[in-house]
Amino acid sequence: MAGPIGQLIRLYDQKVAAAERETDAVERGYESKLRDLEIEQKQAEAKGDTARAAEIGIKIKEVEAEKAQEVANVKKEELQADIDLLEAKKLDVLASEKSAQAKAEELAQIDAKIAKLKDLKDAEQDQADKAKAEVEKAKRNAEALKAQAAAAAEAERETRRMAAVVGYAAQNFGQLSEKGRAAMAAIKSDPLVRAAQDADSLTRATAQLTKALDDQAGSEIRFARRLSELQTAAAGVGPAAERARQQLVGMAQSGTAGISGITSAGQSAIQTLEGIRNAALEAEQALAQMSDDYQRQILQAQGDQRQLLALEHEDNLKRLEELHQQAGQLGGDEYAQAKARADALHSLKLRQLAAEEAAKRRQEAESRTPQSTGGGTGTGAAGGGTTSVTNNFYVDPTKLANEEWVRQNVIPTVDKVARLRR
User: CA–CA separation, 108 vs 246, rounded Å?
Assistant: First the structure.
């Protein structure tokens, strides 16, 4: 690639490489900060300083948010450099000696890549915004933990009081959540306690219920500890980390494993499992979307326009069905009308494609027919020429329910195509 365009492409190549180096440098810098904070947090946890560990946890979230925004900024510059490089390559394609069709195909491929890069730019900022939201959430959780700590102290005092009454000292009531404290208070009104006939039976019933609640709390705490150990193992590399990740996903998919959140540790475990389950569902949806995208790219590369139209129609119908579910009975007539028009539009596109294919076959057949050069009989302008009409257009399926919009925008086009074919 010589000349000004070649120089431009090389310049953008250099910009892309520089942007990638800057992105790597920013990520490495923040990873070092995060490692130091995580070590400090583990040390605080080992000393039993939960308040300090929670404070460092918030700091970690803040650094992660800062990292996400900084990475988003440099990543957007990197993606823009990639876009600029592709735009320069479009100039090189236009200036080449390739056929018009080859140029059009190559330009379409480049435009598709540019569109994906633009989507990635938006996704980077979305990720940064999400990290900021996580920081705010962590701060709110910290305040809630403080309130829980105060409630736990009160629960511990209540535990000591009950132990003096019933002769059983609970081991895990110090971590009871609001739900757990409500369960402890409900012991006094439990049917088993109400049915007690004397002081001894009252003491035994109260001790029995207290121990059952304490055992349940202890089970939740042990489960949360096991969950934390698996998370730590899953953050590593190798077969052990992979097994830990599989176990976490399995635990998340099986629900909350019988824990009800009567302790703060149990509530945290439930939230963790929900997060893992949601992440797994998002990953599953992303994989399905990638599979669909690859299928469309394969069909596009193969030139299978008919199947591409079928997939497009299928997507339109799915979107209409989603809107129908949201509207409920109120959207019944509109849904039926929109679906009928979506089907009509699909049929129209198939007829257009068939006409284009037929015209192409006739053109190819005519090009293979030998042309006479002597004094034969010519065909004048009034002869039977062939007109190929190509009207490819996209209609948002959600607008098909608007009868006025269809009358103004779709029906005139359909009528025009029909007149031109006569």
Answer: 41
